[in-house]
Amino acid sequence: MTHSTVQPLYDTFNRAALRFERGEGVWLFTDKGERYLDFAAGVAVNSLGHSHPHLVNALTSQAEKLWHVSNLYEIPGQEKLGKRLVDATFADKVFFTNSGAEAIECAIKTARRYHYVNGHPERYRIVTFEGAFHGRTLATIAAGGQAKYLEGFGPKVEGFDQVPFGDEKALKAAITPETAAILIEPVQGEGGLRVASEDSLRSLRKLCDENGLLLILDEVQSGVGRTGKLFAHEWAGITPDIVAIAKGIGGGFPMGACLATAEAAKGMTSGVHGTTFGGNPLAMAVGNAVLDLILADGFLEHVRDISLLFKQGLASIADRYPDVVAEVRGRGLLTGIKCVVPNTEFVQALHDEHLLSVAAGDNAVRLLPPLIITEDEARQGLARIEAACERLVAANKQKLA
Ligand SMILES: *Cc1c(COP(=O)(O)O)cnc(C)c1O
């Protein structure tokens, strides 16, 4: 046995040296008893914070009854959550998955099958945007188009045409008789919190209508209340054809879904797609519990109020620390800053202040508190962010001295 010195885990993650034992609301506690304010929220997953009693109860009471049966059988929890998602959105049909990438895969397959059953198998290409992130499967890295995620994984999956974010001319030029759909995040998460303007989303809708294309939205990160509406596209008042969701809908339980109109989903007939785990009773119990809270009276209003307070606080910090913060970005609680200093240094300075955040592309840092955050906790977060800026200013002075 000579391999025993090799670490057993793949080296794919650059992990911070933190081990959390327990979570409560917006707080995480390490094995050393230290407390962190969690503005990473498991990358926008812990929408209701940690150990929310309603979620814990939903999961444990389901766990005592039934975990998994497969999609060979009817699953009442799926029917219930599917109906609730349909009632609350543009969608008529729902397919449950385990992750965001699988929800996007389902969205891509749905769009291609739509044109296929319409007698246009040649229409399979999908236009995407630079800086996009759609997941890490072979098709979703092709859709995201980022070289760093494609390198070394063989030929890029065929059928994705990428255009610069916000370049309408390039977008129009990319549409050909082979185009099936346009795929976009209403707010880029990992790409650096760039927001697609309401106007640009409305003109995307128009462009799709004029060219017989389906509009697919990736709301894996922006959905389920994160921006202060149930879905970010509601701000623009548009009706998409297909929307992929995940992260927030499980509140920490791995799950996702692809939502579509009946028309868009008409090619997804018996046997053409499937999943073993997707939509199992445990996931559905939690997903339903998450919706109980997010759809409750006043919840999204609370998210919008907190977002406003938080954004004003960030803007004030940006004014006072122009050598650290370049710009405040994002929408609702899918927010953060574009840094002047390297974003990794900013994440570390926040870490030193016991506040967790997530680096993003374009030298940005994401601040993604659980949606249940109180005003007082938001102010505590702002104080820590300000203290982190002080640290960085002091460190810079030392470098110059
Ligand atoms: C996280 C994310 C994905 C991928 O989700 P996974 O659950 O990691 O597969 C896709 N799109 C967006 C916008 C995301 O933020």
TrEMBL record:
Catalytic reaction(s) noted: N(2)-acetyl-L-ornithine + 2-oxoglutarate = N-acetyl-L-glutamate 5-semialdehyde + L-glutamate
Compartments it resides in: Cytoplasm
Presence of the UniProt keyword Cytoplasm in the record: yes
GO cellular component, one term: cytoplasm
Signal peptide: none
Record-listed pyridoxal 5'-phosphate binding positions: 100-101, 133, 218-221, 276
Pathway: Amino-acid biosynthesis; L-arginine biosynthesis; N(2)-acetyl-L-ornithine from L-glutamate: step 4/4
Required cofactor names: pyridoxal 5'-phosphate
Entry keyword set: Amino-acid biosynthesis, Aminotransferase, Arginine biosynthesis, Cytoplasm, Pyridoxal phosphate, Transferase
Predominant place of localization: cytoplasm
NCBIfam families cross-referenced by the UniProt entry: argD, PRK01278.1
Protein name per UniProt: Acetylornithine aminotransferase
Source organism of this protein record: Phyllobacterium leguminum
Organismal lineage: Bacteria, Pseudomonadati, Pseudomonadota, Alphaproteobacteria, Hyphomicrobiales
Name of the coding gene: argD
